[in-house]
Design goal:
The structure holds 2 protein chains of 2 kinds. By secondary structure, chain A is an alpha/beta fold. Chain A has a single domain (9-286), classed as Thiamin diphosphate (ThDP)-binding fold, Pyr/PP domains (Rossmann fold). Helices cover 40% and strands 11% of the residues of chain A. Chain A has helices at 9-30, 35-39, 42-52, 76-86, 126-139, 158-169, 190-194, 199-205, 219-230, 265-281; strands at residues 67-70, 146-151, 175-181, 184-185, 188-189, 209-213, 237-242. Chain A has a 5-stranded parallel sheet with strand order 1-2-3-7-6, sandwiched between helices. Chain A has a two-stranded antiparallel sheet with strand order 4-5. In chain A, a hairpin with a 2-residue loop joins β4 (184-185) and β5. The radius of gyration of chain A is 18 Å and the shape is globular. The mean pLDDT of chain B is 98. Chain B is globular. Chain B folds into 2 domains: 5-170, Thiamin diphosphate (ThDP)-binding fold, Pyr/PP domains (Rossmann fold, 3-Layer(aba) Sandwich); 185-314, Rossmann fold. In chain B, α1 (8-22) packs parallel to α8, α4 (57-69) runs parallel beside α6 and α9 (201-214) packs across α13 (299-314). The chains are: A alpha/beta, B alpha/beta. The A-B interface holds A 67, 69, 109-111, 117-122, 124-126, 128-137, 139-140, 142, 158-159, 162-163, 165-166, 169-170 and B 27, 48-49, 51, 53-54, 56, 58-59, 61-72, 89-90, 93-94, 97-99.
Chain lengths: 288, 315
């Protein structure tokens, strides 16, 4: 099946719930992993992979595909969930995450057949990769687009700003960067550790088209920003999405401790109960 | 012996232009040192395929990685210190772990960089590049070999690091001499001691062999232009014959070419041996030859160590 396609509002919500189940189940089964920043990116990934990125899971190297480059690669629970759910591999594989011999490495490796364009895990590096891909496509006159997902932690790395400078210098309007701005990192609040505020002003000063999404969990707001970004020319585009770390699992929301900690069985049960309740609250007519 | 001297970096630049003419996928990146690394010559000829990335080596390395993902063959140039050192983790995690098809030209390798001083004298690249899985490490000896190394790097998939110096280097090979990645060249046959050298030290080793011959010490000289994958077979065949070895490199001894050679020997054929190289210190400003002499990396030191090693072998 080729993407993008169009989802109904109800389908979007159900797919987000499905991803959140995967994220807590995968990290629980692995006994490690990064649920917090995975949960904050769910709505953006559902939107991108279903409705914006041009790709074909049955033909991962399709010549017409867009390139999706992850800069925050520690959110493998979210990455693998969306890739499995759009059809790159059997979702049953998700529970092998982080285990010996699995394609689903703790941080992604491009040689495993899971739909990853690029390996990653060391923050600050992959926005340069995305910039290189965009430059390569533009140089060769190819129309493919490049998407990237970063975070405020990734943007603490100096190299990210080298990439931001160079993408603007080369006028790479085939590059759209989304920033999952959840404001928490391992050691605490971003602004206490090493503040990045004001991110939008920084991107503007670096000559990027800069859009801000006030609620990065609102599908309509995400889609409106992506639609607007598509009309902007001449310079690279960034969509800074304000999000909530741990979004959708009440006890994880806005708690830095859930950056890199797996839920135990008790916590998993609580999370599943919450997700069940949300799913059951959707009226039967909303079933897809 | 007086030899013609030529710029190895001109060999790099000439090969890039040759590649650029026959392969439209070849692109070149530099970090504001294009006039030193001579990539400016490629840039003049193929401006649409030349990217000056400014003074930002980490970004340059990974942009090259991204370019390779779109089917291009990027060659990255700057001083060896900056590309191998500042961007080491980018080379490790993005380029080598990702097995991306990016080639590196580490210019201004060695203490013979001269008056710029220690900050600009790359003396560690062989160590820190050869430790990386998937990396190929080449240290060509002169203009012709540098040119061939670049062409050979282009003809294989995967990351390659090519080290060359700033100064004109004595020409010890020729236009038609064979060059194959992973296949060391025996420059002179001998029976009493093996001298393994790379880069600018190949000429010093050949000069040393001339002097040793006058003392009735027959030295075999091996040009180990490929540090990784190392040609164990050629080294071991020679050392099994001579029973003694000296290595010579314009690089830190720790972890360098000599270390790589002795790793091979320790496991298969331990013999009396010694290394000539930089001994755990930084360089300083000075004329190239003055520095080579002060830091003990000339034919003189090769001769002295060879005499000692042969004496040990015979005692």
């Amino acid at each position: 099946m080729k993407y993008p396609l169009t989802l109904t509002p109800e389908q979007r919500v159900r797919k987000a719930i499905r991803m959140r189940r995967d994220i807590v189940e995968m990290t629980n089964a692995a006994g490690s992993g990064h649920p917090g920043g995975s949960l904050s990116a769910v709505e953006m990934l559902v939107t991108l992979y279903n409705e914006y990125i041009k790709h074909d899971p049955e033909n991962p190297t399709w010549i017409e595909r867009d390139y999706m480059i992850f800069c925050k690669c520690h959110i493998t629970p979210a990455i693998y969930s969306i890739l499995a759910r759009v059809g790159y591999f059997d979702p049953a594989t998700l529970l092998t995450f982080r285990k010996l011999g699995s394609d689903l490495q703790g941080h992604p490796c491009r040689f495993h057949p899971i739909g990853m364009e690029m390996s990653g895990g060391s923050l600050g590096q992959n926005l340069s990769i995305a910039t290189g891909v965009a430059l390569g496509l533009k140089t060769q006159g190819k129309p493919n687009k490049v998407w990237a997902l970063s975070s405020e932690g990734d943007l603490q790395e100096g190299q990210s700003w080298e990439a931001i400078m160079s993408a603007a210098h080369f006028g790479l309007d085939n590059l759209t960067l989304l920033v999952d701005y959840n404001k928490l990192q391992i050691d605490g609040h971003c602004e206490d550790i090493m503040g990045v505020h004001p991110l939008d002003e920084k991107f503007k000063a670096f000559n990027w088209h800069t859009l801000v999404v006030e609620d990065g969990h609102d599908f309509e707001q995400i889609r409106a920003a992506l639609d607007e970004a598509a009309t902007l020319k001449g310079r690279p585009k960034v969509i800074i999405a304000h999000t909530i770390k741990g979004k959708g699992i009440s006890y994880m929301e806005n708690v830095a401790g859930w950056h890199g900690k797996a839920p135990d069985h008790e916590h998993l049960g609580l999370a599943i109960t919450e997700l069940d309740a949300l799913e059951n609250s959707l009226t039967p007519a909303q079933n897809d | 012996m007086t030899r013609e001297v030529m710029l190895s970096r001109q060999g790099w630049a000439d090969a890039l232009i040759e590649l650029g003419e026959k392969d439209p996928s070849v692109v070149v990146l530099d970090a504001d040192l294009a006039k030193s690394t001579l990539t400016c010559q490629f840039g003049d000829k193929f401006p649409e395929r030349f990217f000056d990335m400014g003074i930002a080596e980490q970004n340059m390395v990974n942009v090259a990685g991204g370019l390779s993902l779109t089917g291009l063959t990027p060659f990255v140039a700057t001083y060896g210190v900056f590309v191998s050192g500042r961007a080491w983790e980018q080379i490790r995690t993005s380029i080598c772990y990702g097995e991306l098809n990016v080639k590196f030209g580490g210019a201004h390798g060695g203490i013979s960089v001269g008056p710029d001083g220690a900050t600009h004298q790359a003396l560690e690249e062989i160590s820190i590049m050869r430790v990386l899985p998937k990396m190929t490490v080449l240290v060509p000896a002169d203009y012709y070999e540098t040119r061939k190394a670049v062409l050979a790097a282009a003809s294989m998939k995967g990351p390659v690091y090519i080290r060359f110096g700033r100064e004109k280097t004595p020409v010890v090979t020729s236009k038609d001499a064979p060059f194959e990645i992973g296949k060391a060249n025996i420059m002179r046959e001998g029976s009493d001691i093996t001298i393994v050298a790379c880069g600018s030290m190949v000429a010093e080793a050949l000069d040393a062999a001339d002097v040793l011959a006058e003392e009735n010490i027959s030295a075999e000289v091996i040009n180990l232009h490929t540090i990784k994958p190392i040609d164990s077979e050629t080294i071991l065949t020679s050392v099994r014959k001579t029973g003694a070895i000296v290595t010579a490199e314009e690089h830190q001894m720790a972890g360098g070419m000599g270390s790589a050679v002795f790793e091979v020997l320790m496991e298969s054929c331990p013999v009396p041996g010694a290394r000539v190289g930089i001994d755990d210190t930084f360089g300083e400003s000075g004329k190239p030859r003055e520095l080579m002499e002060k830091y003990g990396i000339t034919a003189k030191e090769i001769i002295e160590r060879a005499r000692e090693v042969v004496q040990r072998k015979n005692s």
